[in-house]
Amino acid sequence: MENPQTNEFKNWETITRARKYRKGHSITDSVSQLRPESIESLNPPDKRMTLDDLKKSHATATIQWQSSRSRRKLLEMLDIRQPFQNKPNWELKTAICLATGSFSRTNTTLNRRAMQQFAAFYDICEWLRAFSTQTFEILAQEPRFTNLDREFLESLSVRVLEVGPQGSQDLGPAIMHITVDTFVFEPFLERKINILRQLYAAHPRLYIGSSMHGLEEEAYFKSTMRFVKSRKPGKLFPKFDEGPQIFEGLRVYGDAEENDDC
After folding, report:
1. C-alpha angle with apex 260: 259 to 262, nearest 5 degrees?
2. Residue 147's CB: how many other CB atoms inside 10 A?
3. Element (H or E) spanning 224, and its range?
4. Nearest alpha-carbon partner for 163 in 201, 183, 203, 190
5. Per-residue model confidence as pLDDT tens digits over 103-142
6. Cβ within 8 Å of residue 258, ≥6 positions away
7. What three-state secondary structure class fits 3?
8. What is the pTM for the complete model shown?
9. Is the dihedral of CA 189, 190, 191, 196 positive or negative?
10. Which domains does the chain have, with CATH numbers?
């Protein structure tokens, strides 16, 4: 029987892309030369880790994030960027985190980065929840999640969307939950054409991610153009001095009625 963890990597294959996106650089559907089995063997689940370990890691990452200048600046930005100035809240119903990576594999550097990204996402959700009068559901989708990752997320009442054996060229079950009432956080989603087309066509009200930058200049597809035209230019995610590369390249997009001075 095929290993279910190996099966996970068949869903979102790694696309080749430059770290810095330059005008004229095209999106392709070419994928990494590494087979899913090779990726799994290079960074397998760490069998020594426990749920308590992940809870402690999350607590540490949360403290670091909440005490940072980056968080203060970001929340100021979001406060100004309320989508409708005549409403007292964002009126969001769903928040979804995509593509952080796993928190519990053998590569501890990647684990820490993923946890810091998730801790920021979860804290932003808690801030947004305080402004919402509606039921606010938090979701996460990542094909590299381990069983321990899922157990950890469920302990925080985060619903994990299971990525099935098919659909490597699309956004998977996440697309069913992304609407105009959604906050999407994707700290480095792979730039597959179909995935990005689906994401921008869903028109999430609040989007923090890396994939839009560059596309807004070159407009590869109509859904990107519609998304961009309804927004002010994306603002850079405030620098996180405690780990400058963790959020480097992310941009914040809100609705078009936001204040130009933010």
Report:
1. 75
2. 11
3. helix 222-229
4. 190
5. 999 999 999 999 999 999 999 999 988 877 778 899 999 9
6. 80, 81, 82, 83, 232
7. coil
8. 0.80
9. negative
10. 49-253 (3.40.50)
